[in-house]
Amino acid sequence: MQAIVLVAFGAPLTQQDIARPAAGPGQVLVRVHASGVNPLDTKIAAGQAGHAQAALPAVLGIDIAGVVDSVGADVAGFAPGDRVYGMTGGVGGVAGSLSEYVAVDARLLAHMPAKLSMREAAALPLIFITAWEGLVDRAHVGAGKTVLVQGGAGGVGHMAVQLAVALGAQVSATGSADQRAAIEGMGATFIDRNVPVEEYAGEGFDIVYDTVGGAVLDASFRAARRYHGHVVSCLGWGTHALAPLSFRAATYSGVFTLLPLLSGEGRAHHGDIMREASALVAAGKLKVLLDATRYMLSADSVSAAHRALTERTASGKVVVELME
Fold first, then answer.
1. 109 pairs with which residues across the strands?
2. Cβ distance 100 to 21 under 8 Å?
3. Which helix (H) or strand (E) is 263 found in, with range?
4. Could you give the CA distance from residue 260 to residue 271 in angstroms, rounded to a whole number?
5. Residue by residue, what is the 3-state secondary structure of 29-76?
6. Is residue 324 pLDDT above 80, yes or no?
7. What are the backbone angles phi and psi of residue 305, rounded to the nearest 5°?
8. What's the average model confidence in pLDDT over 200-207?
9. SS3 per residue for 84-142
10. 3 state SS of 228
11. What is the pLDDT of residue 323?
12. How far is C-alpha 112 from the chain's CA centre?
């Protein structure tokens, strides 16, 4: 089968003919139709993501959408011909989705909603799981909660906004002026990202989800409500002073979405989260913003998809299509 292979960090991607895998115990063999491209893929390729523990040579591609080809032993709930999607590999030595077939842990998969195209489905898993783990698993979002999403039109950000709205929260989101319509269209109050947090936070928010990191995470600490405010970040990788948060008697959680793939623990929960995504899509409460450019399974095309992210020319999620 054909696959896109990273042979050395920082080296050009190559297209190779590699052995087609078989579904082992607990696995499903998927005929890949689309592979989502995330900023993490570009960092792995450049050798800038030690936390992803990629082992060379590597087939990248964290997110997948496709059709079940065969099912291994001890797998229930999936059958050949099923349309499935999930966040299934591309890190920690686990084969990614930039190949015609991939054998994946069935616990990571969910059935695709009928209304999603393969391209849309491949764009969803990592960003939705990251949003869910922050808002639901860590911060326990619910009806009546006030939520601030930092970077509300980004990949994780636009999932977090829609998820919080769907669960009944009162949502605000920061973004650039040209992102205002998108943020308001998702049901959130727009806040210009250049406005200092002290000018809009008021008494503070029950939940602040930072998807930007750096100085924005520092500002998020100052936006938390006193006593019961909770800050969540999926990019809390720097050195930060916790005093502004401590002086509010507020709390903080980090999100590391890769952990089930790297450790093998908690994989079934990712499948559960993807089933929640399917329910929200079916109910018309969740949509993914896609970049208009189409990319295919070739070294040049995948490299162009990576450049669209590193050069920030993409407007929405980037997807590589292997089949219609």
1. 86
2. no
3. helix 259-263
4. 11
5. EEEEEEEEECHHHHHHHHCCCHHHCCCCCEECCCEEEEEEEEECCCCC
6. no
7. -65, -40
8. 96
9. EEEECCCCCCCCCCCECEEEEEHHHEEECCCCCCHHHHHHCHHHHHHHHHHHHHHCCCC
10. coil
11. 80
12. 16
Nearest to 65 by CA among 20, 125, 147: 125
Using a 10 angstrom Cβ sphere, with 0-12 exposed, 13-18 middle and 19 or more buried, the burial of residue 270 is: buried
Total residue count of the chain as it appears in this document: 324
Q: Which domains does the chain have, with CATH numbers?
A: 2-124+277-321 (3.90.180.10), 127-254 (3.40.50.720)
Cα–Cα distance measured from residue 102 to residue 85, given in angstroms and rounded to the nearest whole number:
12
Token pair belonging to 186: 């998702």
For residue 314, give the DSSP letter. Answer: -
Is 3:59 a contact under the CB 8 Å cutoff? yes
Q: Determine the pLDDT at residue 317.
A: 98
Beta strands in 118-276 (DSSP E): 146-150, 170-175, 189-192, 207-210, 230-233, 251-254
The token pair at 42 is 């570009």
| Tokens coding 215 | 């100085």
Strand pairing class (101-105; 27-37): antiparallel
pLDDT at residue number 20: 98
Q: Which DSSP symbol is given to 183?
A: H
User: In a 3-state reduction of DSSP, which class is residue 17?
Assistant: strand
**CB neighbours of 285 closer than 8 A, spacing ≥ 6?**
162, 165, 166
Between CA 322 and CA 62 the distance in angstroms is: 15
Position of tokens 């952990």?
259
Q: pTM value?
A: 0.97
Q: What are the strands of the beta sheet with 207-210, ordered from one edge?
A: 189-192, 170-175, 146-150, 207-210, 230-233, 251-254
Dist. CA 211–CA 222, nearest whole Å = 16
For the record, the structure tokens of 167 come out as 């669960």
